Amino acid sequence: MAITRLPSAGFSITIRIAVTADASSIGRLTTSVGEAGAIVTALDVVDSDPTHVIVDLTCDTADAGHADQVVDALTALDGVDVRKVSDRTFLLHLGGKIEVTSKVALRNRDELSRAYTPGVARVCMAIAENPADARRLTIKRNTVAVVSDGSAVLGLGNLGPAASLPVMEGKAALFKRFGGVDAWPVVLDTQDTDEIVQIVKAIAPAYGGINLEDIAAPRCFEIEARLREALDIPVFHDDQHGTAICVLAALTNALRVVGKRLEDVRVVVSGAGAAGTAIMKLLLRQGVGDIIAYDREGALHRGLTGLNSAWQWLAENTNKENYSGDLPGAIRGADVFIGVSAPNLLTGDDIAQMAKDSIVFALANPDPEVDPREARKHAAVVATGRSDQPNQINNVLAFPGVFRGMLDAHAEEFTEEMALAAARAIADVVGEDKINPTVIVPSVFDSRVAPAVAAAVRAAANNPSPLPAADPGPSDLPEIAANASATP
Can you give the residue ranges of the Malic enzyme NAD-binding domain (predicted)? Predict the structure, then answer.
């Protein structure tokens, strides 16, 4: 199924061009870029002489191949000399994206004596006598380990630890920018479940929380469950928890827009991996009308054989009518479609077969399950994981505030109450008087989000309230409390 990919800042390039100094030269450059399907975002004159002008033209393209096409189109113009092409994403990553800075000055011997030897020995002895003081007297108070084995990097698959490092660096930068949390990448050169558990247990004393990232399902379920059992600090798998929180927040407001109740709607979820499983379990806890889970094996239904424990639980606890057909058939008459799977699975015509005032969350990145432009022709509310489209559902709305709240509360675990409180906080930041079909979640840059989420999580940690009893599924499939996740 063909789709025209949308230009994105993730494929932004800057082209240095020498062009003849005539009145039409700059216009010819921008026209050529536009005709090639890219978007000009900046044009700067960097030098000139009596016959030529040198400009830096910056534009967003759809992918690396599209960027080459734009450059070729410019090169073909008369009087144009393309001198250099810079990929702005690679430039941003040169040397990495994070660094360590000292919080204390070391200007003289006195300061060195207090920060290091001999003074530091007194602090070491105090912690040895009372280990709980580590939260007060060390970086443990505000530090999170971002742990990955590189087995499920973004939507790219099993790339390994080195290739996962740019993502983990980015995650650490987001923690600091939006939550004031000091986070550090810990990429592991093993994909053995037992080894990962042992390594994380061994490094845990230095951290106030563990953020598991880009670990493939179903291993991620077992790793998180075992670490939660073994550690006295929160363990949070963002691909599960973060995504589920953000989807619930967005769906809360989307249902307000269309005037439907969660208990009355039928939801189809494409993708029953870490994110999809957590989303469905959280929706089930909230009393959703019905869910059909769809993945590689098709619609998960009772009677389907050879399923892992996670899929078996979903097959037994969703899909009331035991539907067993294809994805377009599953969404026929459905109220909500949530995609956390693969690009271009559906067409606008498929969306047209959904119920009136339908809701579409097509969250695969960078290309969603359905072209959002086509989906908007038929659905009342459309959201994606992309920053260049309305209603971006992005985990950065959740995890910085969640960890800020847990660290402030000295929480020892992440709970389902925290997940639900965080989702409510994100939804409420928009305000019922502000929501509309193109605004169902706040901007990731809304400064109110992280403090609101942190306050809600802190309150849930300090005053936990009992939740309605529900079957958590098999013991090797964690509850939402152990289980709740674009992008970045």
Answer: 240-462
pTM here is 0.86
pLDDT in tens, 381-435: 999 998 888 999 999 999 999 999 999 999 999 999 999 999 999 999 998 889 9
Say if CB 421 and CB 364 are below 8 A apart: no
Q: What is residue 212's three-state secondary structure? A: strand
* Distance between CA atoms of residues 6 and 38, nearest Å: 9
> pLDDT by residue (tens digit) across 122-148?
999 999 999 999 999 999 999 999 999
Q: Measure the CA angle with vertex 274, ends 273 and 278; round to 5°.
A: 110
Question: Which residues does the annotation mark as catalytic?
Answer: 116, 171
Q: Which residues pair with 383 in a beta bridge?
A: 361
SS3 state of residue 363: coil
Rounded-to-integer distance, Cα 280 and Cα 270, Å? 11
Q: Is the dihedral of CA 177, 178, 183, 188 positive or negative?
A: negative
Q: Which amino acid is at 182?
A: D
Contact 76, 17 (CB under 8 A): no
Asked if 215 and 222 count as a contact pair (C-beta separation under 8 A), the reply is no
In which order are the strands placed within the sheet that holds 336-339?
A: 298-299, 290-295, 266-270, 336-339, 359-362, 381-384
Q: What is the DSSP letter of 99?
A: -
DSSP string, 117-171: TTTHHHHHHHHHH-GGGHHHHSGGGGEEEEEE-SSSBTTTB---HHHHHHHHHHH
Got the DSSP string for 80-91? EEEEEEEEHHHH
Phi, psi of 16 (to 5 degrees): -90, 125
Task: Determine contact, residues 182/204, Cβ cutoff 8 Å.
Answer: no
Residue type, 366: P
Name the DSSP class of 463: S
Residue 81 exposure: Cα atoms within 13 Å on the Cβ side? 9
Residues contacting 273, CB < 8 A, separation 6+: 152, 216, 217, 295, 340, 341
- Which residue in 348, 369, 380, 366 sits closest to 268, CA to CA? 369
Is the Cβ–Cβ distance between 5 and 36 less than 8 Å? no
Q: Residue type for 208, please? A: G
Q: Let me know: does 378 contact 348? Beta carbons within 8 Å.
A: yes
CA 425 to chain centre: 18
Q: Is 197 left (phi over 0), alpha (psi -120 to 50) or beta?
A: alpha
Q: pLDDT per residue over 40-56, tens digit each?
A: 999 999 999 889 999 99
Distances (CA, A) of 194 to 95, 177, 219, 227: 32, 33, 10, 11
36 is written with which tokens? Answer: 């090639």
